[in-house]
């Protein structure tokens, strides 16, 4: 009897143990299933917890960011697209001075992108940086709208051909420049981070989301251009007719709506944590390498120091080249002694990943420098193309076409060529390639963009040459002084649009993909600073050309009265310079070595460890 009872107890106990085991197995399976839902790229939610794939990021967050970008671009170009006409008609600057002012302002916008990228990568993170600079952007636009309404457009209705504005005081001019440069600061600090933040919403470690991330950059540039379409047409028309304050207030409203939409998506965003000051890491490598300048560099990177990558980042594999920097990762007897004493210092010994970060930036710089001259070509749309168009026939019946609105053909060209590239050209090239299934590389696309830019400048020069033949030379107000229709500018705008798809979309993908994980915003900022320096180089080039081409009886190539100048020669000069730049670019592209990434140091490892310890207990 006792034995049967003990047998029953034993069976019951065994059954309970089996049920407990099944329960634990079920819990483990559920936990592992939940764990599989986490993103693999190390992103976190706003509370610092690992991002769950189904509840964050993806196209929901991506579309919010695309709409935000479109509205913010509408606001920015609502000011920028007609700024050259505002300076000439309202502030009474001549054509060359106005073109230089616009180039300097636009250049400053993109210089501020480096400030935003540094704060984002180092301290604030991309979300906080985007939010703060968008607030500055809205404040600057509101100040510009108020100053224009209260002080600048006086008497009311001035700023058109028929009515000149009065002379402005120093205070009014200072207020105008303060507000426009606040717009430059806000937009500049926001732009490189919003592109990278949008890309952060897609997990590149997942094959499906990795493909979506590549597509995001094309759609991002498309959203940018569609946003500027409204400002180049509707707002451009208002401003060309003298309704400057209304146009600027529309820009302010658009920027405010963009900010509200951005903040509304806060619970859904994925984030990468800021990784600390990259300048310090850069200096540590240079100083550590200099201290070990006598050390012998090993042939391979196997003997170099590698501990772990930055938090949430990937290790970068060792590459040959810039061998001097490898000395920073050589482990000497002194390093071992310091390690035993617990006195390791990154100013003495760096990791391979840290060294490769510096190498990546050094390799990117020649490619980046070759894109600057393309930006000189691109910036002509906002200055000389507009002035050229204003000197052509701009009327159809009683309707007058604002010269700045011709850039809408650039936007339509961008939209068309993004579709052509994604749906036709890229699949076709993939089939023709025998080695792999990829289409054109980013470097190849950027080279094609340079070639199309050369053709665009030659086209613009030919159009200007024919315009001069049909223009009235001795005219007081030379707007519309040529019988040649402004629609002859369509080919040059369309060609610039086609070149943008290859150059700027390729740039966004290239610099974002080749920048180390801790410098992604800096990678996007490189795209913008190339535009910035392009504007400054354009301004310098115009000044040099005007100084050299001016003679006793000749006003130079780009005078106030374009009918007495030779703008066509300036366009041909740009075509020649861009051709030389393309040849240099080929050399740099062949020399470039792509970054080699290793495994990612994710925060998911600690989650696995905590679970395994819990189940062992």
UniProtKB/TrEMBL annotation:
Entry keywords, A to Z: Membrane, Transmembrane, Transmembrane helix
Keyword Membrane: yes
GO cellular component, one term: membrane
Gene3D superfamilies according to UniProt: MFS general substrate transporter like domains
Main subcellular location: membrane
TM ranges: 59-87, 107-124, 131-153, 173-190, 219-238, 244-264, 364-386, 406-425, 446-466, 569-592
Membrane-topology annotation of the record: Multi-pass membrane protein
One GO molecular-function entry: transmembrane transporter activity
Subcellular location: Membrane
Family annotation (Pfam families): PTR2
Matching SUPFAM superfamilies: MFS general substrate transporter
Family classification: Belongs to the major facilitator superfamily. Proton-dependent oligopeptide transporter (POT/PTR) (TC 2.A.17) family.
Protein's name in the database: Nitrate transporter 1.5
